[in-house]
Amino acid sequence: MTDVVTDEARAGEGVTYDLVVVGGGPAGVAGALTAALAGLRVALVDSSARLGGQYFRHTAVPARAPGLDRFLRQARALSDRAEVLSRHQVWSVTREPDGDLLVHANSPEGGAVAVRGRRLLIATGAYDRPLPFPGWDLPGVLTAGGAQALLKGNGVVAGRRVVVSGTGPFLLPVATGLAAAGAKVLGVYEAGGGLGLARHPLLALGKAGEAAGYAVSLARHRVPYLTRHAVVEAHGEREVEAVTVARLGRRWNVLATRIVECDTVAVGYGFVPQIDLGVQLGCATRHDVDGSPILETDAAQRTTVPMVWAAGEPTGVGGWRLAEIEGRIAGRSIIAHRRAPGAGVEVAAGEVAGVLARRRDRWRAFGAALQQAYPVEPGWQGWLRDDTLVCRCEEVPLARIREAQELGATDARSIKLLARPGMGWCQGRICGYAVACLAGEPQQPPRRPIAQPVTLGALSDTDTPHDSAH
Amino acid sequence: MTFAITVDGRSVPVVPGQTIGAALHAAGIRSWRATRFGARPRGLFCGIGVCFDCLISVNGRAPERACLVEAAPGDEVTTS
Ligand SMILES: Cc1cc2nc3c(=O)[nH]c(=O)nc-3n(C[C@H](O)[C@H](O)[C@H](O)COP(=O)(O)OP(=O)(O)OC[C@H]3O[C@@H](n4cnc5c(N)ncnc54)[C@H](O)[C@@H]3O)c2cc1C
Ligand code: FES
């Protein structure tokens, strides 16, 4: 990979930062600000145009969101005290012979930048976990988070007649947000549950206010909320025109179907933590409650690799409040480490004991309970047909995956070698979950040599997206 | 307070701060490229830079993710 690194510019002109943070969501900003306020030299690198990550997305005129005012104050305070590199996509982190870490990023102008730091905080968040189904690649089918990003980050309502489907509590803010912005939300089809909103797990978890708020909003906009239902097929020529909604059995097998006409579908089956940078550096991983690989961290948010911390969704999905608390704990632990670098886990953990750690543990338990309440059941595999694309990038249909299995591929890795799912631009981020399920094996940590394609220009020399020959 | 970009010569309004992908989607343009093998239409899917479905060429540059690139006045976008 050295050939890529040679003409890199150095951010900060010869500065070695005490801390480099990757990710400008609630976790990264809280960690960076905590450290910067204590006098550490901090750089934060984030791919978006504005700080905020996935939850605190905001346009020039920010909408109301719980915690947003406070976050914007934090972001301003951070910009005064730290180097903030927005629109910089980190594709790799390497270790220098003296132990420093080099964070390699693409700059918005298309050049390459390296940021040098003694310590690293990985706060790269998560992305939607989609499941394939016939027609899921039709334009107009979006991930739930994608619909939310359009609305919160761009002020664009994803469609006029929208169906929301998938599993998990995230479907609720997506549906109520779309309805409040003027879309006709034809239904929220929650594959799991079986209990309905009145007995939503948010209530059992003592979040009655939040659940009631969504229930009131859905009722006001006359949005039906149906559990044990899901979109199992999207229909249309050039874009989605209708979907098949199925009533599902306990394991998500289809019991009965009907057609719903719509122009937009928002689907999401939970989130996939973004852990590539940690895996590249050799950080140990473990499986979260829902089976997602996450970075293993101790009480002080330290990974198993020296000088590397992680906070927020890469250590397990649990919402923005948990992400912020973890970021603050990481920040404190990093401060303690700079003061007494040799002192080990005990000092760092001692620093964070008390209120913050207890709050973190409560939110973690909450996140784990939600993950447990919304498992993905295997019946979705029965929604696929032979010609259903599993991998959107390389256009690999189910039949080719089954063929690879018949040829002897027994695991996701050999399926990938034979049938090429996950070998395209997204590097398996979108289909990785489905391919592992189809292979009947647990989710594996991603083995990607680079966290982001270096430059699309370079990649597209051999492989252009506009080449639609064949 | 909108400005315009052109998409294959056609003018599309943009609210400052919007990405190219969001502006196109809002204007009812929901697909802007065809896949290599099946020539299937593609536009926004993940909306946050993960899936690479939304690749587009802006001002003759190499393909970029439309959901990440903020639109600038006068941008010329070409679809395939
Ligand atoms: C699309 C989407 C929409 C969501 N919307 C909501 C919502 O409306 N309400 C809600 O309660 N929860 C929402 N969530 C859940 C929410 O993401 C989390 O609860 C919260 O944002 C976690 O905070 P975080 O700091 O861990 O990560 P994030 O907020 O995701 O922040 C991570 C940041 O790191 C950046 N990043 C990642 N990789 C790189 C890289 N290689 N180089 C540079 N930068 C990088 C990302 O661009 C992002 O800005 C959404 C999730 C997604 C994926
Ligand atoms: S919509 Fe997925 S990368 Fe742009």
TrEMBL record, chain B:
<protein>
    <submittedName>
        <fullName>(2Fe-2S)-binding protein</fullName>
    </submittedName>
</protein>
<dbReference type="GO" id="GO:0016491">
    <property type="term" value="F:oxidoreductase activity"/>
</dbReference>
<keyword id="KW-0560">Oxidoreductase</keyword>
<dbReference type="GO" id="GO:0051536">
    <property type="term" value="F:iron-sulfur cluster binding"/>
</dbReference>
<dbReference type="InterPro" id="IPR036010">
    <property type="entry name" value="2Fe-2S_ferredoxin-like_sf"/>
</dbReference>
<dbReference type="Pfam" id="PF13510">
    <property type="entry name" value="Fer2_4"/>
</dbReference>
<dbReference type="InterPro" id="IPR042204">
    <property type="entry name" value="2Fe-2S-bd_N"/>
</dbReference>
